[in-house]
Amino acid sequence: MKAVVIHMPNRASLRDEAEPRAGDGQVLVKVAAAGICMSDVEVLKGTRPSAYVKYPVIPGHEWCGTVEKVGPGVSGLSAGDRVAVEGHNFCRTCAWCRRGETNLCASYNEFGFTLPGGFAEYAAVRADLAHPFAATLPFEAAAMAEPFASVVHGVERAKVRAGDTVAVVGPGTLGLLAVGWAAMARPARIVTIGVDRANEALARRMGATDYLTVDDDPGTKLRDMTGGAGADVVLEAAGNEAALPLALDLARRGGTVVLFGIVGGGRRVIIEPDVFCLKDLRVDGVFAYTTANFEQALRLMESGRLDVKPLVTHTFPLREFEKAFELLARRSEPVVKVMLRP
User: Fold this and answer.
1) Per-residue pLDDT tens for 117-165?
2) pLDDT score for 261
3) Cβ-based neighbour number of residue 162 at 10 Å
4) What is the pLDDT of residues 269-285, one digit of tens each?
5) Are the CB atoms for 57 and 5 separated by under 8 Å?
6) What is the enclosing helix (H) or strand (E) of 15?
7) Cis ω on the peptide bond leading into residue 273 (within 30° of 0)?
8) CA dist., res. 28 & res. 162, Å (int)
């Protein structure tokens, strides 16, 4: 089969690999669509922390496809089923897994980073990680279940209510999905903040009522909108060091801040320590998602309540993976989610 292999940092190729087999409790999935995210770019560049990648690797952790073969001991899935696949191959036995916190499994193992992922024609996966979905949901949309599950994990903690003011920092894939998820709670206002206005139209399409850039003095503008208070909920999905102090500044006293963005590279930021106490803030960091979050995200998209298709701005055949990676890394034109089709 054809597969993208990252051999080591800054060295990748499309090559022939042995087709995997469905072992006990596994299914073989013919990949239909696989999304590229900045974590994949980190693997290619060599900037992902070493504990979270194992070279050489077939990348791809946001993907879906069709069950080709069913291994021994599998029930509930059949050849021909359309499935979206969880990224984390959690152990099911550690203390975190037993609590249902499968995202925090003591034995980190993830498709596309330490296990062969979805940038290939086929992948073999544990059957319980393959979630069936209806034919009415396009493959490109179903592949978004993985990033959307992270959003569901975080926004559920935020408990957005009708009448709230919500600020979303970073209108990339996660931020725009967060806008869409928050909009279902019918807040009074959703203010999206970006470095420029490239994704303003998409943000408004997903439910944003207002759009600001970092050059607009967003803290002052937001407080002007809210009678001096600030946002009830701030969802930070930018993944850079400037976004954290901005998110804390945007929140009202007694507000909630949820952090999705991972900066990487061991960078540091200076924050006034008393801001947490003096503003009585609730701050949640989000790492990935649980199985329950993944299932909920997939069902929401399947139901039609949230249309994620507009976020897929580019699609490339697998053989053009270099061009796809280059587009996402350099952003030479407006881009949100880039998909590969084997």
Assistant:
1) 999 999 999 999 999 999 999 999 999 999 999 999 998 889 999 999 9
2) 86
3) 8
4) 889 999 999 999 999 99
5) yes
6) strand 11-16
7) no
8) 44
How far CA 40 is from CA of 112, 121, 149, 187, in Å, comes to 8, 18, 18, 34
154 φ/ψ angles, rounded to the nearest 5 degrees:
-80, -45
Strand 231-236 and strand 251-259: the pairing is parallel
End-to-end Cα distance, the chain: 10
3-class DSSP state for residue 123? Answer: strand
The dihedral over CA atoms of 62, 64, 70, 76, expressed in degrees to the nearest 10, equals 100
The whole-angstrom distance between residue 288's C-alpha and the CA centroid of its chain comes to 8
Q: How far apart are CA 10 and CA 322, in angstroms?
A: 11
Contact 327, 340 (CB under 8 A): no
Alpha-carbon distance 20 to 24, whole Å? Answer: 13
Low-confidence stretches of the chain (pLDDT beneath 50) = none
User: How does strand 82-85 pair with strand 130-132?
Assistant: antiparallel
**141 C-beta neighbours (distance < 10 Å), count:** 24
Closest Cα to residue 179, out of 247, 250, 237? 237
With 0-12 CB in 10 A as exposed, 13-18 as middle and 19+ as buried, what is 98? Answer: exposed
2-144+308-341 placed in CATH 3.90.180.10: yes
Parse the chain into domains and list their residue ranges: 2-144+308-341, 150-285
d(CA 172, CA 196): 11
CATH class in words for 150-285: alpha beta
Three-state secondary structure readout of 204-223: HHHCCCEEEEHHHCHHHHHH
